[in-house]
Amino acid sequence: MRRNRSARRRGSRGSLLALACFGAVTFSSTVWALPPQSPAPAKAESDLTAVPPILDPDYRHQKRYQLELSPHFGSLLGRTVGSTFLAGARAHFHLSPMFSAGTSYEYSRVQPSPGFEGPASTRDMHFVFAEGSMSNDLAMRIGRKLIALDLFLNVGFGGVNVDREWRRAGLIGGGVKFYLGLPWLAFRIDLLSLIHPTPLSGTSWRTDVDMALTGGFCFFMPARHSAYE
Q1: Are 171 and 157 spatial neighbours (Cβ–Cβ below 8 Å)?
Q2: Residue 113 within any structural domain of the chain
Q3: How many domains does the chain fold into?
Q4: Single pTM value for the model
Protein backbone atom coordinates (compact mmCIF):
# COMPACT_ATOMS: atom_id res chain seq x y z
CA MET A 1 0.00 0.00 0.00
CA ARG A 2 2.74 2.44 0.91
CA ARG A 3 4.57 1.67 -2.31
CA ASN A 4 1.37 2.33 -4.29
CA ARG A 5 0.83 5.69 -2.52
CA SER A 6 4.42 6.83 -3.13
CA ALA A 7 4.11 5.78 -6.77
CA ARG A 8 0.88 7.77 -7.10
CA ARG A 9 2.52 10.83 -5.53
CA ARG A 10 5.44 10.57 -7.93
CA GLY A 11 3.05 10.18 -10.80
CA SER A 12 1.03 13.25 -9.78
CA ARG A 13 4.19 15.30 -9.37
CA GLY A 14 5.39 14.24 -12.80
CA SER A 15 2.01 15.11 -14.28
CA LEU A 16 2.09 18.58 -12.69
CA LEU A 17 5.65 19.17 -13.93
CA ALA A 18 4.74 18.06 -17.43
CA LEU A 19 1.63 20.28 -17.38
CA ALA A 20 3.72 23.24 -16.22
CA CYS A 21 6.25 22.68 -18.99
CA PHE A 22 3.49 22.36 -21.56
CA GLY A 23 1.88 25.60 -20.32
CA ALA A 24 5.17 27.48 -20.46
CA VAL A 25 5.88 26.32 -23.99
CA THR A 26 2.35 27.14 -25.08
CA PHE A 27 2.49 30.66 -23.52
CA SER A 28 5.86 31.45 -25.04
CA SER A 29 4.79 30.28 -28.48
CA THR A 30 1.62 32.33 -28.21
CA VAL A 31 3.59 35.48 -27.28
CA TRP A 32 6.03 35.05 -30.13
CA ALA A 33 3.17 34.45 -32.53
CA LEU A 34 1.50 37.79 -31.65
CA PRO A 35 1.94 40.57 -34.23
CA PRO A 36 4.68 43.07 -33.35
CA GLN A 37 3.61 46.23 -31.57
CA SER A 38 3.25 49.35 -33.70
CA PRO A 39 5.97 52.00 -33.19
CA ALA A 40 5.36 55.01 -30.99
CA PRO A 41 3.01 57.42 -32.71
CA ALA A 42 4.73 60.28 -34.49
CA LYS A 43 4.33 63.82 -33.28
CA ALA A 44 1.19 65.55 -34.32
CA GLU A 45 1.46 67.55 -37.51
CA SER A 46 0.67 70.72 -35.60
CA ASP A 47 3.82 70.19 -33.47
CA LEU A 48 6.03 69.68 -36.53
CA THR A 49 4.78 72.80 -38.28
CA ALA A 50 4.61 75.04 -35.22
CA VAL A 51 6.51 78.32 -35.43
CA PRO A 52 9.52 78.41 -33.06
CA PRO A 53 9.23 81.19 -30.44
CA ILE A 54 12.27 83.04 -31.80
CA LEU A 55 10.47 83.37 -35.15
CA ASP A 56 7.11 84.24 -33.64
CA PRO A 57 6.38 88.00 -33.87
CA ASP A 58 4.81 87.83 -30.41
CA TYR A 59 8.13 86.76 -28.82
CA ARG A 60 10.95 88.24 -30.93
CA HIS A 61 11.96 91.90 -31.29
CA GLN A 62 8.86 94.13 -31.28
CA LYS A 63 9.71 96.52 -34.13
CA ARG A 64 6.18 97.49 -35.14
CA TYR A 65 5.64 101.26 -34.78
CA GLN A 66 9.30 101.74 -33.90
CA LEU A 67 11.63 104.39 -35.30
CA GLU A 68 14.96 102.98 -36.45
CA LEU A 69 18.03 105.24 -36.76
CA SER A 70 21.16 103.73 -38.29
CA PRO A 71 24.36 105.66 -39.02
CA HIS A 72 26.69 103.67 -41.24
CA PHE A 73 30.05 103.73 -42.99
CA GLY A 74 31.58 101.67 -45.77
CA SER A 75 33.18 101.61 -49.19
CA LEU A 76 31.93 102.57 -52.67
CA LEU A 77 33.28 101.08 -55.88
CA GLY A 78 32.44 102.21 -59.42
CA ARG A 79 33.88 102.51 -62.89
CA THR A 80 34.06 106.30 -62.66
CA VAL A 81 34.57 106.98 -58.94
CA GLY A 82 37.07 104.14 -58.52
CA SER A 83 37.33 103.08 -54.88
CA THR A 84 36.16 105.60 -52.30
CA PHE A 85 34.18 105.78 -49.06
CA LEU A 86 30.46 106.10 -48.35
CA ALA A 87 29.06 107.47 -45.10
CA GLY A 88 25.53 108.36 -44.10
CA ALA A 89 22.50 107.68 -41.95
CA ARG A 90 19.08 106.12 -42.36
CA ALA A 91 15.77 106.72 -40.57
CA HIS A 92 12.92 104.22 -41.00
CA PHE A 93 9.53 103.89 -39.37
CA HIS A 94 8.32 100.29 -39.09
CA LEU A 95 4.70 100.04 -40.16
CA SER A 96 4.58 96.31 -39.40
CA PRO A 97 7.02 93.47 -38.61
CA MET A 98 7.63 93.19 -42.38
CA PHE A 99 7.38 96.66 -43.93
CA SER A 100 9.03 100.00 -43.17
CA ALA A 101 9.45 103.33 -44.92
CA GLY A 102 11.83 106.22 -44.44
CA THR A 103 14.68 108.25 -45.83
CA SER A 104 18.45 108.08 -46.06
CA TYR A 105 21.37 110.41 -46.64
CA GLU A 106 24.69 109.32 -48.14
CA TYR A 107 27.91 111.25 -48.64
CA SER A 108 30.81 110.32 -50.87
CA ARG A 109 33.62 112.01 -52.75
CA VAL A 110 34.56 111.64 -56.39
CA GLN A 111 38.27 112.20 -56.89
CA PRO A 112 40.76 111.54 -59.68
CA SER A 113 41.96 107.94 -59.58
CA PRO A 114 44.64 106.36 -61.78
CA GLY A 115 43.06 103.93 -64.20
CA PHE A 116 39.54 105.30 -63.71
CA GLU A 117 37.79 107.80 -65.94
CA GLY A 118 36.75 110.44 -63.43
CA PRO A 119 36.68 114.19 -62.95
CA ALA A 120 39.79 116.32 -63.12
CA SER A 121 39.23 117.62 -59.59
CA THR A 122 37.74 116.29 -56.35
CA ARG A 123 33.97 116.71 -56.06
CA ASP A 124 31.59 115.98 -53.20
CA MET A 125 28.49 113.86 -53.79
CA HIS A 126 25.38 114.10 -51.59
CA PHE A 127 22.63 111.48 -51.98
CA VAL A 128 19.10 111.76 -50.57
CA PHE A 129 16.61 108.89 -50.97
CA ALA A 130 13.04 108.09 -50.02
CA GLU A 131 13.08 104.37 -49.21
CA GLY A 132 10.86 101.39 -48.67
CA SER A 133 11.98 98.16 -47.04
CA MET A 134 10.63 94.62 -46.72
CA SER A 135 12.15 92.18 -44.22
CA ASN A 136 11.81 88.53 -43.28
CA ASP A 137 12.31 87.05 -39.80
CA LEU A 138 15.16 84.58 -39.46
CA ALA A 139 17.27 83.03 -36.71
CA MET A 140 20.82 81.73 -36.50
CA ARG A 141 22.41 79.31 -34.06
CA ILE A 142 25.84 80.06 -32.56
CA GLY A 143 26.83 77.28 -30.18
CA ARG A 144 23.87 76.83 -27.85
CA LYS A 145 22.57 80.34 -28.35
CA LEU A 146 19.93 81.46 -30.86
CA ILE A 147 20.27 84.91 -32.42
CA ALA A 148 17.36 86.65 -34.10
CA LEU A 149 18.08 88.40 -37.38
CA ASP A 150 16.28 89.98 -40.32
CA LEU A 151 16.96 89.55 -44.03
CA PHE A 152 15.74 92.67 -45.82
CA LEU A 153 15.38 94.35 -49.22
CA ASN A 154 15.67 98.12 -49.75
CA VAL A 155 14.45 100.18 -52.70
CA GLY A 156 14.85 103.95 -52.91
CA PHE A 157 14.39 106.87 -55.27
CA GLY A 158 15.83 110.35 -54.89
CA GLY A 159 18.64 112.54 -56.12
CA VAL A 160 22.36 113.24 -56.03
CA ASN A 161 23.86 116.69 -55.62
CA VAL A 162 27.22 117.46 -57.21
CA ASP A 163 28.49 121.03 -57.42
CA ARG A 164 25.08 122.31 -56.26
CA GLU A 165 23.35 120.58 -59.15
CA TRP A 166 20.66 117.98 -58.43
CA ARG A 167 20.21 114.91 -60.62
CA ARG A 168 17.93 111.89 -60.26
CA ALA A 169 19.31 108.77 -58.58
CA GLY A 170 18.09 105.38 -57.42
CA LEU A 171 19.01 102.73 -54.89
CA ILE A 172 18.38 99.02 -54.65
CA GLY A 173 19.95 96.56 -52.27
CA GLY A 174 19.55 94.39 -49.24
CA GLY A 175 21.30 93.08 -46.22
CA VAL A 176 21.07 91.42 -42.85
CA LYS A 177 20.30 92.82 -39.40
CA PHE A 178 21.51 91.10 -36.22
CA TYR A 179 19.63 91.70 -32.96
CA LEU A 180 22.10 91.90 -30.08
CA GLY A 181 19.83 90.99 -27.16
CA LEU A 182 18.95 94.58 -26.27
CA PRO A 183 15.52 96.03 -27.13
CA TRP A 184 17.05 99.21 -28.55
CA LEU A 185 20.12 97.96 -30.45
CA ALA A 186 20.99 95.92 -33.55
CA PHE A 187 23.78 95.73 -36.12
CA ARG A 188 23.14 95.77 -39.86
CA ILE A 189 25.18 95.10 -43.00
CA ASP A 190 24.01 96.51 -46.34
CA LEU A 191 25.02 95.68 -49.90
CA LEU A 192 23.72 98.47 -52.14
CA SER A 193 23.63 99.43 -55.79
CA LEU A 194 23.58 103.19 -56.35
CA ILE A 195 22.30 104.22 -59.77
CA HIS A 196 23.29 107.82 -60.44
CA PRO A 197 24.97 110.19 -62.89
CA THR A 198 28.65 110.84 -62.26
CA PRO A 199 30.52 113.97 -63.42
CA LEU A 200 33.37 113.47 -65.87
CA SER A 201 36.00 115.89 -67.09
CA GLY A 202 34.54 119.20 -68.11
CA THR A 203 30.74 119.37 -68.04
CA SER A 204 29.91 115.84 -69.22
CA TRP A 205 28.07 113.25 -67.09
CA ARG A 206 27.66 109.49 -67.25
CA THR A 207 25.17 107.17 -65.56
CA ASP A 208 26.90 104.64 -63.32
CA VAL A 209 25.83 101.71 -61.19
CA ASP A 210 28.16 101.69 -58.20
CA MET A 211 28.38 99.03 -55.50
CA ALA A 212 28.55 99.91 -51.82
CA LEU A 213 29.13 97.77 -48.73
CA THR A 214 28.30 99.45 -45.43
CA GLY A 215 27.81 98.50 -41.81
CA GLY A 216 26.55 100.23 -38.69
CA PHE A 217 24.49 100.03 -35.52
CA CYS A 218 20.70 100.47 -35.43
CA PHE A 219 18.98 102.31 -32.59
CA PHE A 220 15.26 101.67 -31.97
CA MET A 221 12.85 104.09 -30.30
CA PRO A 222 10.90 103.49 -28.18
CA ALA A 223 12.55 100.39 -26.75
CA ARG A 224 10.17 97.43 -26.26
CA HIS A 225 11.25 94.35 -24.33
CA SER A 226 10.61 90.87 -25.73
CA ALA A 227 11.25 87.31 -24.57
CA TYR A 228 14.70 87.30 -26.20
CA GLU A 229 15.77 90.79 -25.08
Answers
A1: yes
A2: yes
A3: 2
A4: 0.72
